Amino acid sequence: METAFAQMLPPVASDVAGNWDTLFLFLVGVSVVFFVIVVGSMLWFLIKYREKEPGQKVGNIVHNDKLEFLWITIPTILVMIIFAWGWIVYKRMVDAPESAYDIKVIGKQWLWQFQYDNGKTTIGELIVPEKIPVRLIMTSDDVIHSFFLPDFRIKNDVVPGMYTKVWFQANEQGEHTIFCAEYCGNAHSKMMGTVKVVSLSEWETFQKGKGAPKERPASLVEWGQQLYTDKGCFACHSVDGVKGIGPSFKGIWGKQEEMSDGSHILVDENYVRESIEYPGTTKDKLVKGFPPVMPTFKGLIAEEELNALIAFIKNLKE
Length: 318
Hints:
Elements lengths: L3 H4 L9 H32 L16 H30 L6 E8 L2 E5 L5 E3 L1 E5 L4 E7 L4 E5 L4 E5 L5 E5 L5 E7 L12 E6 L1 H8 L12 H11 L25 E3 L5 E3 L2 H9 L25 H13 L3
């Protein structure tokens, strides 16, 4: 039966998460026991040996061999138990099974990109099967990020120019939030994603290249709004007129946007498409007052998804 304290922790969504939780609760228990012993003894000595009369002196105190032996031996044994326990769980966490399915992860300011062996790429959503080991091979496209999945109890830095790895085996179907745990710029707090754990049949469908098992809203505008979140657009572009890393989408449709070189471009279907697939790196295609930090989505977004995003932006009136 779970304790109330254990219920305060994130859900146990991977096979290794329970091992870490048990070790953590053991450490908390040991800390509480020693806190009670040390602080309780301190309070007892304060009361028992307080000065009762002016000038009273404490009698001669000599060392106690048994007490000193126990005080050294018991903590040493506990520390060695904690070390061995932690090492066993750590080795299990870092040594992925040979049969683990590899997924490539690329961290970018400010989104997560996932590449699968079937050639598909997803943005902001990691699709994995339940009860099958999955190994993430991670790198960064710009600065240091940190891939953090609290429900799975895994976290590792994502570093440009090298690969880091983590693995897990999801216990059951569901969705779990991915965070970036390393400050990586202005939109760091918005660099989130989702792990979607699916059934083996859904996973096989996805492996055949028939698309991620995700429900699609009937309305094109609603689908565009969903993509605005799933693709990480919200990290840089607001929909309420507030200036972010990039221009707000609110009310820009049909207007003339001023570029860095002083020229103006009409915000229409072609402009939105080009801005998504080929973000402006020259002054004649870069909106005035904003840095050239947007990554390209060429090949990462389908034609029908582009249409949905355009419909969503077009619907954002002043």
